[in-house]
Amino acid sequence: MMIDRRSVLAGAGAVALMGKAAQAAGPDGFRPGEVWNDTNGVAINAHGGGLLRHGGRWWWHGEHKTAGDAGNRAQVGVHAYSSADLVNWRDEGVALAVSDDLDSPIARDCILERPKVVYNPRTRKFVMWFHLELRGKGYGAAQAGVAVADRPQGPFRFLRAGRVNPGIWPANATAEDKAPDTKLAQDMPGGQMARDMTVFVDGDTAWHVYASEENATLQIARLTPDWTKHDGYYVRALPDGGNEAPALFKAKGRYYMFASGLTGWRPNPGRVYVADKVTGPWRSLGNPVRGSEVDQKTTFHSQSTFVLPLPPARPGGEPRFIFMADRWRPENAIDGRYVWLPVEWEGETPVLRWRDRWTLADGWKG
User: Fold this and answer.
1) What is the third-level CATH fold of 1-120+129-138?
2) Burial 166-186 (b: 16+ CB within 10 A, else e)
3) Which of 6, 34, 223, 225 could bond to 206 as cystine, CB 3.0-4.6 Å?
4) Bridge partners of 247?
5) What is the pLDDT of residue 315?
6) Residue ranges covered by each domain of the chain
7) What predicted TM-score, i.e. pTM, was given to this entire model?
8) pLDDT for the residue numbered 366
9) Across 154-302, where does the E strand assignment appear?
10) How far, in Å, CA of 319 to CA of 310, rounded?
């Protein structure tokens, strides 16, 4: 399917009027929760997304939403933007388009969520993973989809979709886990469910992290060297913890993960975990939000999607991290907003505080 720029701009029309007067925050900063415009004055449309650095620019890929309830399903695909400074974003068009072929797994009106793009230096390919639900099937399919491209802006070529590691037990599964009445065992022949997800690259290895077992347990699955398939090794993480919206990063020699509870589109108290290895075991550090009772109960009315690592502000300084989250508006999906905040620290615990406006220069000052 071909989508020209005119149709994409028309899809953004529901918030374009609001966006005309809005910017990310001015020339060099962020205003969490407000409408953020691209350099054409159109509201940025990249929800549930992630970022990567390539070719001297930042690349942001996210769900392209449309107006109303129908926008909670994929009517367009995955949108891409690029920026030199993380504030001023250039529209790079639709990176992965949904299909007009109703037999395609990514047929228009499917559910395509939380796309994450990584660059594989071995293959020199950009690899996109996403949570996929088949058209007209609600959230019953619980599949992971993958696509590849030669350029970060695409076009991405859809490869396949399905459940994860059929016929294979997790490396840390116990006899109790394998009991016939568990969701893990019931799904084992056809593959594990994969809903809210991210991809985390650790050195030469990429990991697919996703909510599984009817969202009760996170699973962490290793990808093959080309990062387009699972290699059969995976573990259960935080079993029966009811976590979704995982967002991983590595700091201070350890692994950290933001996540949320299970309340549908409604926000809930954030969670943060720590581990010495990607595969765990993971330990809770509680709610990372510092602020009012409402802030703590709703994670600033948002849900985590990604953590962006940045280089130190000066040589020899500490690496910096941006917490990225979405304010979902399911009644009018296109009006979802972005909440980006600097990750601060209390000892070894990452914490989040609200900022009406902040810049890369002042975000990590005391």
Assistant:
1) Tachylectin-2; Chain A (2.115.10)
2) eebbbeebeeebeeeebbbee
3) 223
4) 258
5) 87
6) 1-120+129-138
7) 0.92
8) 62
9) 157-162, 197-202, 205-212, 217-223, 230-237, 244-251, 254-260, 271-275, 283-284, 289-290
10) 6
